[in-house]
Write a structure and sequence with these properties.
heterodimer; A: alpha+beta; Jelly Rolls; Phage tail protein beta-alpha-beta fold; 3 domains; eight-stranded antiparallel β-sheet; B: mainly alpha; Arc Repressor Mutant, subunit A; FecR (chain A); Ferrdict_sens_TM (chain A); sigma factor antagonist activity (chain A); transmembrane helix (chain A)
């Protein structure tokens, strides 16, 4: 078999065909033959044609603009609701300190608009307390994981506390997950500062697309770039688990965070198998069955356990 | 180009291209290697190219995502992987369509403005050729004559400009997509038995 043509090569060739067609220097049979070679070529060609046409008569050059269909901006709507909620809350409870507790049960994922217009997505089995103080927005994460999209307010920094670990932001988006001995921080927008009280280290700056682990005792490690992992790891905000080559064992642990019915893998060799796929957090059994089907394993459900075992021992 | 085909191509330019960067970001979230994403996108355009008419498509963005999703699923099934029957087509689609909230959606208008800026930023000769071809409507041969270069030079410059614009449409403007297009560095070294 010849080596598969890369998408980039196809794109370059498609652009050439489009320009040649425009020049009038084209043998249609030759083009047909090229197109017939691969369906991706047909796609690349129509795409290049469309882009070329987009420039016609200056549609993109500003001579005329096609009217765009107005689109409902859900996010704006959500932020608006958050502000409206903030207004109500302020009227009713302003005299008291604005602290609110949010908890999620195992398997529950909540999106909560906060009083300042920020948004919190709270993952399974999490305890969170939010206090909107005049000079500081304080969030305490006792357990679990949450992602925050922080409304900009330079006067009032937004600080997440989890044990001695601190994550400070002004207007940005990031998640914090409590683990044994420290916190995992993933940044999706902007910049945050991470440190641990008492560790005696200067705060670390962590920027969008980076992750960092902050140990309770030693403070934040060096941030590492991980934008692909971050988008996958935050799929829980949509109630999903996205796997790209993770081991079955690690994936099962991830499901077990969300469900009372735990996946138990009877065979260590099975736990090493790699998976790709896209699942709902609350469907551990379909996940287990899908995985088992692909490895030739068997699933037995006993009470609160979903047991996965090899039908025959795996060949070493 | 037949009239029907011309209409489909124009529709793709107007209604589909502006959403391509979002589509890629979305695909990347689920199917993490960028090489696959390029393939999926080309296959998706191939399906759109096969449409005989487009008047029945009320939500081009949704249609695009749906088409890409089915291409992606097909590719996953062809590779030896776990089935993904736990997420129904419509479910996953709705998530993207009404809650893209974590990462913002680029509006079509903004994309067009980018294309305009991009043309302005092309190297002089390349930009001049685009202007003569697209605004003044001169054929390539005439452009070559006026500029005192060969037709091949005009062709090469046009290809270069078109590719730059295609690349910009693919990338969109988010930091996330810019970062994700860099060569993947995430390693998967896991302990082997």
């Amino acid at each position: 078999m010849t080596e598969r043509e890369s998408a980039a090569d196809i794109e370059a060739a498609a652009a050439r065909w489009v320009v040649r067609a425009d020049r009038g220097d084209l043998d249609p049979a030759e083009l047909e033959a090229w197109l017939a070679g691969d369906t991706r070529r047909q796609g690349a060609f129509v795409r290049a044609q469309a882009a070329w046409g987009l420039l016609d008569r200056g549609r993109a050059l500003g001579v005329e603009e096609t009217p765009q269909r107005p689109r409902v901006d859900r996010r704006g709507l959500l932020a608006g609701l958050g502000l409206a909620a903030a207004a109500c809350v302020a009227v009713i409870v302003a005299p008291r300190l604005l602290a609110a507790r949010y908890g999620t049960a195992v398997g529950e994922i909540r999106r909560v608009p906060l009083a300042d217009g920020s948004l919190a997505a709270i993952n399974t089995d999490t305890a969170l307390e939010v206090a909107m103080k005049p000079r500081r927005r304080e969030v305490r994460l006792d357990r679990g994981e949450a992602w925050f999209q922080v409304a900009k307010d330079a006067e009032r920094p937004f600080v997440v506390e989890s044990g001695p670990v601190r994550v400070r932001a002004v207007g940005t988006a990031f998640s914090v997950r409590r683990r044994d001995g420290g916190c995992e921080v993933l940044v999706t927008e902007g910049v945050v500062e991470v440190w641990s009280e008492g560790a005696g280290e200067a705060p670390r700056r962590v920027t969008a697309g980076e992750r960092v682990f902050a140990s309770d005792s030693a403070g934040a490690a060096r941030p590492v770039p991980a934008s692909l992992e971050i988008t996958r790891e935050l799929a829980w905000r949509e109630g999903q688990i996205v796997l790209d080559g993770e081991a079955f064992g690690a994936a099962a642990e991830e499901f077990n965070r969300y469900n009372a019915r735990k996946i138990v893998i009877a065979d260590p060799a099975l736990a090493e198998q790699k998976l790709v796929g896209w699942f709902r957090t609350n469907e551990p059994e379909s996940f287990a069955r899908a995985a088992a089907a692909s490895f030739g394993a068997r699933v037995t459900v006993r009470g609160d356990a979903i047991l996965v075992q090899s039908v025959a021992p795996l060949a070493e | 180009m037949s009239e029907g085909r011309a209409r489909v191509v124009a529709w793709i330019g107007r209604e589909i291209l502006p959403h391509e960067a979002d589509l890629r970001a979305w695909l990347r979230r689920a199917f993490a290697t960028a090489g696959d994403v390029d393939d999926i996108v080309q296959e998706t355009y191939c399906r759109l190219a096969g449409l005989s008419h487009v008047d029945h498509i009320g939500e081009p963005r949704a249609y695009l995502f749906q088409a890409a999703r089915s291409v992606a699923l097909e590719q996953l099934r062809r590779a030896r992987v776990v089935r993904i029957d736990t997420v129904t087509e419509i479910d996953a689609l709705n998530i993207e369509l009404d809650e893209p909230s974590p990462e913002r959606i680029a509006g079509g208008r903004r994309e067009l403005e980018r294309v305009r800026r991009l043309i302005a930023a092309l190297p002089d000769r390349c930009r001049r050729i685009f202007e003569m071809r697209k605004i003044e409507g001169l054929p390539q041969r005439e452009i070559a004559r006026r500029m005192g270069v060969t037709e091949n030079v005009v062709e090469n410059e046009s290809v270069r400009g078109l590719r730059a614009i295609l690349a910009a449409l693919a990338e969109g403007e988010t930091e996330e997509t810019a970062a994700a297009r860099r060569p993947s560095t995430h390693d998967r070294t896991r302990k082997r038995r």
